[in-house]
Design goal:
The chain contains ten helices and no strands. By secondary structure, the protein is mainly α.
Length: 266
């Protein structure tokens, strides 16, 4: 190999491929640039929101339309400059492009301008959102399965559909604006009755229908009582479990101290 093309270890050490003239690693420059520019772009995306919404709800004319168009082009140019700067600072540009397709679409395809609002989501930690949602779903599942509450709710749902069908049998020939004429009316009436709301827009007219309504009313009272008692019991048991865990931890600590004291005495 010619000497002019050969690189000594000292040359490679002095000029690593990931550093530029000022000696700062290029990846670090990209991170610093992103940390400084991302809040600015978020504000631009937020201020650009009226430019997107207002033309959808009203027709703009004259200088107002021109001003909105100028703001739109200015924000688009800002996104283009930001994308180009990050692409220039990226070490692996192909990797940058393939992992920032949303940003590329925002600057390359005009019809995808509303995607700029996705910038606002960058400041929401997705992992935290997933963690919170997972924890919430886990607690909700534990609550609905506490003391067999899910079986109670399933039984009430079956009772609602059965009562609605039975009510329709009794009321299908009733007349009047508040009469129950179809299964949809019957379901609505059953749900309103079992939840003890009682709008009164649909009411039973026959004796059999009123007996069904009475049964649903007592079912609703029982449902409210079961829900209240189960939810209260769940939180009380949760607090009790936390207190018991704390007591066990304290007892374990005391046991360890006693064991260490016995070993010292012996």
């Amino acid at each position: 190999m010619p000497k002019s093309l050969a690189k000594s270890p000292s040359d490679e050490q002095a000029n690593p491929p990931s550093e530029i003239a000022d000696g700062m690693p290029q990846e670090e420059r990209l991170q610093r640039f992103s940390a400084r520019i991302d809040p600015v772009m978020m504000v631009l995306a937020l201020l650009w929101l009226p430019v997107l919404v207002v033309p959808l709800v009203t027709r703009l004319h004259g200088w107002v339309a021109l001003a909105f168009a100028c703001v739109d082009y200015f924000v688009w140019a800002a996104f283009v400059v930001e994308y180009a700067a990050k692409l220039r600072l990226a070490i692996d540009r192909r990797h940058f492009v393939t992992h920032h397709l949303l940003d590329l679409a925002m600057v390359a395809v005009p019809i995808l301008r509303p995607l700029r609002l996705a910038r606002l989501l960058r400041f929401i930690r997705l992992d935290r959102v997933v963690l919170v949602l997972g924890s919430g779903l886990k607690r909700a599942r534990a609550m609905f399965t506490h003391h067999g509450l899910h079986f109670v709710l399933l039984s009430v749902a079956v009772i609602i559909f059965a009562a609605a069908g039975l009510e329709l049998v009794f009321e299908q020939h009733s007349v009047g604006p508040t009469a129950i004429h179809n299964f949809g009316d019957a379901i609505w009436w059953a749900v309103v009755t079992v939840t003890t709301v009682g709008y009164g827009d649909k009411v039973p007219m026959t004796g059999g229908g009123k007996w069904v309504a009475t049964a649903l009313m007592f079912t609703g009272i029982g449902l409210v009582g079961a829900l209240t008692a189960t939810i209260a019991s769940f939180f009380v048991q949760e607090q009790h479990s936390a207190e018991m865990a704390e007591i066990k931890a304290q007892l374990a600590e005391i046991r360890d101290l006693l064991d260490s004291q016995k070993r010292e005495d012996s």
